[in-house]
Task: inverse folding
């Protein structure tokens, strides 16, 4: 700790930070633009000018940029100094000379850092009367608007997009006061994290395109703290609603999970909530003879569900539904009749993951901890497309090498440009072993593309190289050449020498053996290091882990389908799940057709609801309060943001009796019945801050509340009462700024933009004051202490190509794929082949192939890194059920004339091009 | 830079198909530069200059061709190409006139000469004559101030300029045989 | 021995000396002296003792600059020497003469610098428009390789040096040493934050020295003839000779190598022949476009770094731009502002957005639309664009003629406003 004096007051600060960061950590108001808490300083905007004095006798001092000056012990500075204030005012005056002053029509208005800083700096009279510089805007794709005329040239966008997120298609162009930030030409911003530009840009250059089309000011949105349901990362979000419509999602800071950033799937993939196709009433379908549908009264529907209890019934849970709804279904049908709502292979993987997560040989790293890894091995997982936010974290991990070099050269870590310059292209070692090349290729030290069985064999050798206690691959020494052996020992060395190695595996690789061998590597490292090694085990969906903790190990989906097909069980209740994404068409058809009654709760029509006898409308993530458990076992609470149609209920309400009135009661019940989920009780929103007074979801400036329904009836309706939560659907109450736990939209005096979050952090980048980062469900046990023995025989593939299933950030998640903007970025089914395999089949880039005897068609994409003899098949939703093509024997050129689309939206790191 | 006001996704062109394949001479020179710099980003800027030497200017297609050849992001190359004064992202005439308008030349009367040359060529700064012979570009101080006013025509310095000497020069260039074939 | 170590081989009536001619004129003696047993530290001490200051403009002691390069076993193996031959300062035309006139002298000096910091790779960052210099240097580098002064194990010393001649794609900001490094790396030439200094983390993150052409050209003499000789050259407190130039409406504009400490009057009235007939000296910029105006009252000052500094300006490049009494001082400052505004890299706010405003105001004066508010804005910008406020020295350089111009030519500014025209235009 160091002591510095700011305007006569002594503060204890961290000397390894700069003066700006420390001033903000102390809660002081010092304007800035180019500095960002996650990206450090570059000194471009000159907005954070302060006066620094040599010592207490120095009366003149000199102007320095706080962001570029270390908070050295004994430093004496003044923010309030007249010259410093004048400098800051002049900077703003300069920045604004060409700004269009279009705040009334700008989407950033009211939450604009530029507006805030302009006010704060005291520039309120415009002297510039010359011609403004203007720019042309670009088309940047379905997510983001471009309005370059608002730009103040802080360089944050390119620093975020290129340097932080690894994007390659946004750059600073031209020079002097014509500097331009854009693509080389019009086109979609390719990076999977482009949406953060909206929040990183301190003004309205990059804005949310979908939001623009149904725009509302920040203070007119009804908001509540939420958790993203797009994948298992569990990023914290703030969805905003107006006029019954979910309008946008922005980041909500959680120091341990997503920090300041979301992925584009999470930010943009919510529009299914507003879908015209939403199921808004319960309905019954008669499947006998001529099919007919009739709406059912909510009470009748609930009674019908309750009656199922008395029959032979089983329930199928859902990894994309909340703990509460899964638990309620389990309570309805009984634990022994509650079945996994994911594929059998995934079920096996999830059982294993649960087991490993409680093992004290391993540590389950949070995303923030992942950023600290200094050597990484990824086995089998396409992280960017499975849990995107983690891929963004990995891009920061590999910069560990740069951080080390900077430290050795006495360059402060916050000197962003200097650290990057020093390190050049040096990165911490990262090995990616996957069945197809991933989007992390550019930051990967060793990229190994092979069949899963080939990867497992190699990973076994790596484990054995780290510790000879670890079982090696049976074929390890026989056929591997020296080059391969050297690579294995190099990877083993890199992991062994690391201070904080990280092993990543997961369930989407589709082979539980990858988890076992990943655990063996981590165990070997733990043994050598005598402390737990970070083992990150990915699962694909928001509550895969939560569901897995409720399902008996023998209750696989396959078993449920068999029980139904055989007629052994007559009735089935399916929770928020399309079973045709979980098992083969034939097996699901057989089960659902045989069952006497098929009850399905869901938001949207699916092939499964199409075969239901009773469909129950259920609320979407923003319409109910719920808990989810993320990939690392972190349980988090997501509040209801807005109400929906009164006949639509949270799924759990369809299943539970009237004795459970509040979701909190259900959470408590779930916590008491399921040992593994007992920490859920910590999440319950609990007592009101002031008894009887709730926290409003609407800001104190919420417009038009008395008038917004006047077109229907001039009588102002009573505000709906939220019986369940400590939040209210109103403007009145204790502001959420009193408690970061329920802070969805940060705001502080003078700070209307998202930058106000620093006012709620213990220190910049720290935890939120009073904030809750979630609760870990896994308690570490001194469990199994031995290595897994792995019998790794290459699967006797019926096809001459070993097929793995590729993932897509836009498409592989069921619900986000029903959002219009996401659809624009989705790609049809494709099959990635090596050049050799394509040539030998007479296939060219863009040809189509038929998969086996099925009608499934995929477009050929030749990939330069694809291992010959393997293929990466992406099954687009609604096109191919992967379980139907797992056993295909042939892949041959198709002469189909049907339009299959093109692969323009496909981003590959190894797209092969003919010269 | 070509930017279009558009919100129509059909405007997106696949960059790979628009890239011009670099010719053998360009590639040979770029490969030589690869031996002089330890990082290909440095070669990117050299490649822009090489392509300009061969093509007269750097078209979008050429820029994309370089990006493809060196596997550098096209947007980064654009950022560099548009930063520097001597990389031409628009077609130029056979003779680029770099007209010094910095302080000594100004004292020595370059404003008057500028009016004269723009009038006699019929073009302003940044423009090319209709016959494709001249492009007129202002340039910061050419470092020949004791012989001001000065300008460069092609690779040759022209010193102690007067209205008459400019006129003579223009005529001379126009009648001399074309050394370089149009590309 | 010579009293013009920088220009003694330069004869504008013939081409530059080839390597044989250069060797015959005591050329490459420095490398021979090193081969006879001078260690890098020995050379560093000689250069430190000589008192040589950088000739690029800032006047920082060369030996001291070199001494910040990490030495010894723990230091990075790869180090770079970079020659700043990006002469682009308005009114400056000295390095062109040195490179066109005697290219081997530069290579000779580079050998000394590279040996001292143990850099085995050197880049000459040459202004793209300097075609003649490029050709001269190309030829000289080729000859030096052939004669064994470049390449592996030079003169048996075990020291290797390769030189790459890089021609700039053109930006004034590349003259700023860290911006130059970015340009050399093929990036946008925005300057870098200092610290870290290039000596620690420079080209591709490796220890790097960037020296001006003229600075390096001083080295062969110092090594060949010794520190005493070198210090004896000057007439003032600073050591050695310097290239001095005069441009503008003088009788005999040109560039001469003169001892430091030469009186301004001797340069202006002697070498440059005084003002053209019918013209009076109004003011002069002593060292290029980024220096403060000086007045006729300063003619008897000596051309020394400190002496010029005390008079409120800077010796900088030593190339003087003369303003006569029939040229508009407001127009002259305005011309410089256009230059600086255009050459701003666009990285930091005051420079990027402040200079164009200043420039626009000058255009207003020219067009007869200026007002008192404009004048106030100009005054505001002097401090705002000053040292420490901006990211690099470009905008502070612009404030030198701006600030001193507003001070010395206040009446002219007022007149532009009151008369709503430029009275120098006929």
Result:
């Amino acid at each position: 700790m160091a002591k510095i004096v700011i305007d006569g007051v002594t503060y204890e600060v961290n000397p390894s930070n700069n003066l700006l960061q420390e001033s903000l950590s102390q809660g002081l108001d010092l304007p800035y633009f180019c500095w960002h808490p996650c990206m450090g300083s570059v000194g471009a905007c000159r907005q954070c000018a302060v006066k620094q004095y040599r010592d207490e006798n120095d009366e003149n001092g000199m102007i320095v940029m706080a962001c570029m000056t270390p908070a050295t012990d004994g430093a004496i500075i003044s923010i309030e100094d007249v010259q410093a204030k004048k400098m800051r005012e002049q900077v703003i005056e300069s920045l604004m000379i060409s700004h269009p002053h279009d705040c009334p029509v700008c989407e950033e208005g009211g939450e604009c850092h530029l507006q805030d800083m302009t006010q704060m700096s005291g520039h309120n009279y415009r002297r510039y009367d010359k011609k403004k510089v203007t720019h042309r805007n670009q088309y940047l794709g379905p997510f983001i608007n471009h309005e370059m005329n608002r730009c103040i040239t802080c360089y944050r966008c390119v620093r975020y997009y290129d340097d932080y997120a690894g994007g390659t298609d946004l750059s600073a162009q031209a020079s002097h006061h014509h500097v331009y930030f854009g693509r080389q030409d019009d086109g979609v911003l390719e990076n999977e994290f482009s949406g953060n530009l909206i929040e990183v840009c301190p003004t309205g250059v990059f804005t949310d395109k979908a939001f623009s089309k149904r725009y509302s000011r920040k203070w007119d949105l009804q908001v509540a703290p939420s958790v993203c349901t797009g994948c298992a990362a569990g990023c914290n979000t703030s969805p905003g609603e107006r006029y019954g419509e979910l309008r946008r999602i922005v980041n909500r800071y959680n120091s341990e999970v997503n920090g300041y950033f979301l992925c584009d799937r999470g930010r943009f993939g919510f529009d299914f909530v507003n879908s015209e196709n939403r199921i808004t009433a319960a309905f019954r379908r008669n499947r006998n003879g001529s099919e007919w549908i009739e709406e059912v009264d909510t009470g009748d529907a609930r009674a019908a569900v309750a009656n199922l209890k008395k029959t032979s019934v089983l329930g199928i849970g859902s990894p994309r539904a909340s703990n509460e709804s899964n638990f309620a279904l389990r309570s309805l049908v009984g634990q022994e009749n509650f079945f996994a709502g994911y594929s059998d292979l995934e079920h096996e993987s999830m059982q294993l993951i649960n087991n490993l997560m409680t093992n004290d040989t391993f540590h389950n790293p949070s995303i923030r901890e992942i950023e600290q890894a200094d050597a990484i091995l990824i086995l089998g997982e396409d992280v960017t497309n499975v849990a995107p936010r983690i891929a963004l974290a990995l891009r920061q991990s590999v910069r560990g090498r740069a951080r080390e070099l900077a430290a050795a050269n006495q360059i402060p870590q916050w000197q962003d440009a200097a650290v990057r310059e020093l390190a050049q292209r040096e990165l911490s070692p990262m090995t990616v072993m996957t069945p197809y090349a991933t989007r992390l290729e550019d930051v990967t030290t060793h990229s190994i593309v092979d069949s899963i069985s080939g990867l497992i064999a190699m990973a076994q050798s790596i484990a054995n190289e780290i510790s000879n206690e670890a079982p090696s691959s049976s074929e390890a020494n026989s056929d591997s050449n020296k080059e391969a052996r050297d690579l294995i020992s190099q990877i083993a060395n890199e992991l062994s020498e690391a201070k904080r190695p990280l092993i990543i595996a997961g369930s989407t690789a589709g082979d539980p053996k990858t988890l076992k061998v990943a655990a063996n590597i981590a165990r070997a490292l733990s043994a050598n290091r005598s402390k737990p090694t970070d083992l990150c085990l990915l699962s694909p969906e928001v509550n895969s882990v939560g569901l897995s903790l409720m399902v008996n190990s023998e209750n696989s989906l396959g078993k449920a389908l068999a029980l139904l097909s055989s007629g052994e069980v007559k009735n089935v209740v399916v929770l928020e799940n399309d079973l045709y994404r979980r098992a083969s068409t034939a097996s699901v058809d057989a089960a659902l057709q045989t069952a006497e009654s098929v009850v399905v709760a869901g938001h949207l029509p699916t092939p499964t609801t199409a075969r239901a006898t009773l469909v129950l409308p259920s609320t979407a993530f923003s319409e109910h309060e719920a808990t989810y458990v993320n990939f690392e076992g972190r349980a988090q609470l997501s509040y209801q943001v807005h109400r929906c149609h009164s006949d639509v209920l949270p799924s759990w309400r369809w299943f539970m009796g009237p004795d459970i009135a509040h979701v909190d009661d259900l959470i408590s019940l779930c916590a008491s019945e399921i040992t593994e989920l007992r920490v859920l009780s910590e999440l319950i929103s609990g007592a009101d801050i002031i008894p009887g007074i709730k926290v409003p979801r609407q800001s104190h400036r919420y417009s038009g509340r008395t008038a917004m329904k006047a077109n229907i009836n001039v009588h102002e309706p009573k505000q709906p009462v939220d019986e369940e939560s400590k939040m209210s659907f109103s403007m009145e109450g204790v502001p959420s700024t009193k408690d970061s736990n329920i802070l969805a939209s940060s705001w502080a005096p003078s700070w209307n933009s998202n930058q106000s979050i620093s006012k709620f952090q213990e220190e910049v980048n720290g935890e939120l004051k009073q904030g809750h980062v979630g609760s870990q469900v896994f308690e570490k046990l001194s469990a199994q202490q031995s290595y897994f023995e792995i019998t790794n025989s290459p699967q006797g593939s019926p096809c001459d190509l070993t097929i793995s299933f590729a993932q897509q950030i836009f498409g592989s998640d069921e619900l986000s794929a029903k959002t219009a903007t996401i659809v624009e970025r989705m790609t049809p089914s494709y099959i990635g082949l090596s050049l050799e395999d394509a040539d030998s089949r007479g296939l060219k880039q863009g040809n189509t192939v038929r998969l086996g005897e099925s009608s499934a068609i995929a477009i050929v994409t030749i990939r330069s890194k694809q291992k010959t003899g393997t293929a990466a098949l992406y099954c687009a939703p609604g096109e191919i059920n992967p379980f139907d093509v797992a056993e295909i024997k042939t892949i041959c050129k198709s002469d189909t004339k049907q339009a299959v689309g093109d692969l323009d939206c496909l981003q590959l790191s190894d797209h092969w091009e003919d010269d | 830079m070509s930017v279009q006001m558009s919100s129509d996704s059909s405007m997106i062109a696949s960059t790979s198909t628009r890239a011009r394949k670099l010719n053998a001479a360009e590639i040979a020179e770029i490969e030589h530069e690869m031996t002089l710099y330890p990082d290909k980003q440095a070669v990117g800027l050299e490649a822009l200059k090489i392509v300009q030497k061969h093509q007269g200017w750097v078209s979008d297609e050429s820029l994309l061709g370089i990006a493809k050849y060196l596997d550098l992001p096209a947007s980064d190359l654009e950022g560099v190409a548009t930063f520097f004064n001597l990389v031409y992202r628009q077609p130029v005439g056979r003779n680029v006139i770099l007209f010094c308008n910095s302080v000594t030349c100004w004292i020595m009367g370059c404003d008057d000469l500028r009016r004269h040359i723009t009038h006699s060529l019929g073009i302003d700064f940044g423009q090319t004559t209709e016959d494709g012979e001249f492009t007129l570009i202002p340039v910061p101080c050419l470092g020949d101030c004791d012989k001001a006013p000065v300008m460069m025509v092609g690779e040759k310095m022209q010193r102690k300029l007067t209205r008459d000497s400019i006129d003579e020069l223009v005529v001379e260039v126009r009648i001399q045989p074309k050394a370089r074939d149009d590309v | 021995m010579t009293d013009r170590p920088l220009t003694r081989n330069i004869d504008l009536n013939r081409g530059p000396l080839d390597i044989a001619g250069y060797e015959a004129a005591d050329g490459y003696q420095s490398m021979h002296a090193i081969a006879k047993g001078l260690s890098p530290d020995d050379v560093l001490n000689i250069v430190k003792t000589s008192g040589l200051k950088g000739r690029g403009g800032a006047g920082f002691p060369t030996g001291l600059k070199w001494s910040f390069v990490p030495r010894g076993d723990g230091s990075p193996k790869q180090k770079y020497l970079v020659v700043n031959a990006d002469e682009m300062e308005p009114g400056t035309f000295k390095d062109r003469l040195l490179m066109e006139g005697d290219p081997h002298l530069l290579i000779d000096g580079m050998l000394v610098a590279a040996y001292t910091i143990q850099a085995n790779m050197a880049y000459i960052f040459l202004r793209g428009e300097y075609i003649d210099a490029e050709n001269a240097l190309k030829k000289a580098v080729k000859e030096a390789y052939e004669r064994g002064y470049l390449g592996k194990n030079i003169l048996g010393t075990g020291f290797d040096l390769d030189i790459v001649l890089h021609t700039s794609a053109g930006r004034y900001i590349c003259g700023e040493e860290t911006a130059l490094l970015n340009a050399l790396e093929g990036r946008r030439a925005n300057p870098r934050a200092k610290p870290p200094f290039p000596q620690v983390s420079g080209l591709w993150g490796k220890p790097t020295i960037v020296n001006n052409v003229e600075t390096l050209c001083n080295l062969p003499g110092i090594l060949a003839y010794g520190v005493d000789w070198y210090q004896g050259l000057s007439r003032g407190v600073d050591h050695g000779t310097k290239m001095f130039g005069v441009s503008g409406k003088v009788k005999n504009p040109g560039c001469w190598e003169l001892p430091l400490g030469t009186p301004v009057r001797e340069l202006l009235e002697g070498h440059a022949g005084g003002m053209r007939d019918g013209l009076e000296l109004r003011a002069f910029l002593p060292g290029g476009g980024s220096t403060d105006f000086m007045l006729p009252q300063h003619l008897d000052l000596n051309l020394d770094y400190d002496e010029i500094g005390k008079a409120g300006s800077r010796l900088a490049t030593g190339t003087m731009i003369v303003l006569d009494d029939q040229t508009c001082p407001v127009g002259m400052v305005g011309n410089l502002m256009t230059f600086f505004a255009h050459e701003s890299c666009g990285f930091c706010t005051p420079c990027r957005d402040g200079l164009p405003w200043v420039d626009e105001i000058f255009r207003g004066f020219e067009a007869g639309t200026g007002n008192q508010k404009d004048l106030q804005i100009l005054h505001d910008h002097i401090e705002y664009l000053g040292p420490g406020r901006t990211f690099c020295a470009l905008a502070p350089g612009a404030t030198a003629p701006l600030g001193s111009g507003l001070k010395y030519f206040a009446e002219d500014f007022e007149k532009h406003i009151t008369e709503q025209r430029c009275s120098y235009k006929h």
User: Anything to note?
Assistant: The CA atoms of residues 17 and 61 of chain B lie 9 Å apart. The beta strands of chain B are 95-100, 127-128, 134-139, 151-153, 156-158. Residues 1-16 of chain B have pLDDT under 50 and may be disordered.
